[in-house]
Every structure is written in structure tokens, then in C-alpha cells.
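Colleagues,

For the teaching module next term, I've prepared a clean inverse folding example: a structure given as C-alpha cells, and then the sequence designed for it. I'd like students to try predicting residues themselves before seeing the answer, so please don't circulate the second half yet.
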């Protein structure tokens, strides 16, 4: 009987305990611009990714990439921009293999300690290669 009462008390106590829910470090973060389909954008020119931080904290934007239809990724920018309430990251468009086309923009966000990362989709970019457009310093 004593064992039964102990088990019953443990069951009742666990029923009232709040479940532990891990908070997502990326809660509320979103790309605000560019979104949708944009372009034409010219190779070598400066553009920017704008964002809202939401409830996220302790995060950095660490890279901006283009992904082509075959899934190949070309890095556009690498760094560490701390995420605040809102902000922008300027970068220079560098089309892969100097090839005009349609690319998906992705933004990699990492926790400052590097333990977690998450890709965020941006716009579909219609990029135009122009051999006479020199690379910009953004």
C-alpha cells in the first residue's frame, strides 16, 4: 500500500509540473528585404539584406549566399553582424561563373558561441552578368 501511495503521489506531482520547452534562439528573426522575386540585379553592384531581430538574442548573421537551380552555393558575403531589433548587411553581388540567371538568396545566422545555426530564405534574385560592371566596395 505504501508503494502504491508513493507512485500515486509522484504521478499527481508530475501532472502539475510545467513542461520544459526549450526556447528557440532564432524566435522572431526574419528577413524583411529582399523578399519575393527581385531584379534584375546587376553583377558587381551593392545591395543589402535587411532584417528584424524579433525575440532572438545572442545571434550573428555570418554569411549571405546564392543557391542556383542545381543546389550549388556561391558565397556573397562572410562576416559577423550582431542581430539587434533591426538592421542591414551590405554586400556586392558576385554571380557564380559570371552567369546571368535566377538564384535563391539565403542568410546564415549563428549563435555567438557557434553551437547553433539556421538558414533563412531571402528573395529569388534575377541576376544579370555585365562584364563592364566593376565590383563595388560596399
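(Answer key — instructors only)
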Amino acid at each position: 500500500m505504501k508503494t502504491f501511495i508513493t507512485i500515486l503521489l509522484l504521478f499527481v506531482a508530475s501532472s502539475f509540473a510545467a513542461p520544459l520547452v526549450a526556447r528557440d534562439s532564432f524566435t522572431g528573426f526574419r528577413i524583411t528585404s529582399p523578399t519575393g522575386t527581385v531584379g534584375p540585379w546587376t553583377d558587381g553592384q551593392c545591395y543589402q539584406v535587411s532584417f528584424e531581430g524579433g525575440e532572438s538574442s545572442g545571434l550573428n548573421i555570418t554569411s549571405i549566399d546564392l543557391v542556383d537551380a542545381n543546389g550549388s552555393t556561391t558565397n556573397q558575403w562572410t562576416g559577423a553582424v550582431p542581430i539587434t531589433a533591426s538592421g542591414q548587411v551590405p554586400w556586392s553581388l558576385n554571380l557564380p561563373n559570371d552567369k546571368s540567371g535566377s538564384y535563391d538568396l539565403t542568410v546564415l545566422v549563428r549563435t555567438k558561441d557557434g553551437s547553433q545555426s539556421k538558414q533563412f530564405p531571402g528573395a529569388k534574385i534575377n541576376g544579370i552578368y555585365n562584364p563592364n560592371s566593376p565590383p563595388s566596395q560596399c
